[in-house]
Design goal:
The protein has helices spanning about 15-30, 55-65, 75-80, 85-95, 105-115, 130-145, 160-170, 190-200, 235-240, 245-250, 270-275, 280-300, and strands at about 45-50, 70-75, 100-105, 120, 155, 175-180, 205, 220, 255-260. It is α/β, with parallel strands linked by helices. A 5-stranded parallel β-sheet has the order 7-6-5-8-9. Strand 1, helix 2 and strand 2 (about 70-75) form a beta-alpha-beta unit. InterPro entries: Asp/Orn_carbamoyltranf_P-bd (IPR006132), Asp/Orn_carbamoylTrfase (IPR006130), Asp/Orn_carbamoylTrfase_sf (IPR036901), Asp_carbamoyltransf_Asp/Orn-bd (IPR006131), Orn/put_carbamltrans (IPR002292). It holds the Pfam family OTCace_N.
Length: about 300
């Protein structure tokens, strides 16, 4: 039996595979009719501990467009680790479905799901959000061209799962990325250690003051309060200087504004930038589906 391929983080995909996924996503987006049989006869379980708009709809519609069938399961229906162990859930799903797309609270849940002998895709966990980063890289290529090593991108705000996956994607494709966060809310030391060990010549730098930010092509942020995290006035106060606003846009020279959504307007980003001429935010959202379709095609068919 062929060992299933997984995407629990971007570390499961080497640089060549990421680049080929992005190229395939462009092809699927341009010519979706050529891929309507990619998942023919395949059923994909969508196991969501966290609610979602973009992730659920983009996966369900994308799987349908590839000729597959999505089965949605939320935490109330399944209760991972409560009604039944994660391993038992995975083993049962493997009897009926061909892959699991999981949006979970803990990365460990994904690792347990991956023991059942079918492919597992991380649709968000506490550490990584690889599908979002694939969509972000696709969007940057559409806006600026295929060679991302000539770009300069800055992420400002909370060093969360989106930030950490973006760091991995940037390092894999040798894209210069400035990560600007308060020291208290920076990315994990483990992620930085992984970058240093895996990508010796990466161009990801950590800063703690927006005033240190040099000229960039794109500005990126995410919500300051992640789903399931208690709202914190203290955290928002720490992060206020890291807001994406017109003053920062003009100072940085950026021509693209990015956000993975959902956005809290007036906190991490202003209405002016969210809805402005430089916003590529809805393109990022649209590209979630195309990037995920490419990833699923790769997991089942390779790059053929």
């Amino acid at each position: 039996m062929t060992k299933p391929k997984h995407c629990l983080s971007l570390l499961d995909l080497d640089a060549s595979t990421i680049q080929q996924c992005l190229q395939l996503a462009q092809q699927i987006k341009a010519n979706p009719e050529a891929y309507v049989h990619s998942l023919e006869g395949k059923s994909i379980a969508l196991l969501f501990e966290k609610p979602s708009l973009r992730t659920r709809v983009s996966f369900e519609v994308g799987i349908h467009q590839l000729g597959g069938h999505a089965v949605y399961l939320d935490a109330n229906m399944v209760g991972p680790g409560q009604r039944e162990s994660v391993q038992d859930i995975a083993a049962n799903l493997a009897c009926w479905t061909h892959a699991i797309v999981a949006r979970v609270f803990q990365h460990d849940t994904l690792q347990q799901l991956s023991t059942a002998g079918i492919s597992v895709v991380n649709a968000l966990c506490d550490i990584h959000h690889p599908c979002q980063t694939l969509a972000d890289l696709l969007t940057l290529q559409e806006v600026f061209g295929e060679d991302l090593s000539v770009l300069k991108v800055a992420y400002l705000g909370d060093g969360n799962n989106v930030c950490q996956s973006l760091m991995l994607g940037a390092a894999a494709l040798n894209m210069p990325l400035q990560v600007v966060t308060p020291k208290t809310y920076g990315p994990s030391k483990q992620i930085m250690q992984t970058l240093d060990e895996t990508f010796k010549n990466h161009q990801v730098t950590l800063l703690n003051d927006p005033a240190q930010l040099g000229p960039v092509d794109a500005l990126y942020t995410d919500t300051w309060i992640s789903m399931g995290e208690q709202d914190s006035a203290e955290k928002k106060q720490y992060l206020q200087p890291f807001q994406l606003n017109q003053q920062l846009l003009e100072a940085s020279g950026a021509t693209a504004v990015m956000h993975c959504l959902p956005a809290h307007r007036g906190d991490e980003i202003t209405d002016e930038l969210m809805d402005g001429e430089h916003s590529v935010i809805l393109r990022q959202a649209e590209n979630r589906m195309h990037a995920q379709k490419a990833l699923l095609h790769y997991l089942f068919n390779g790059f053929v």
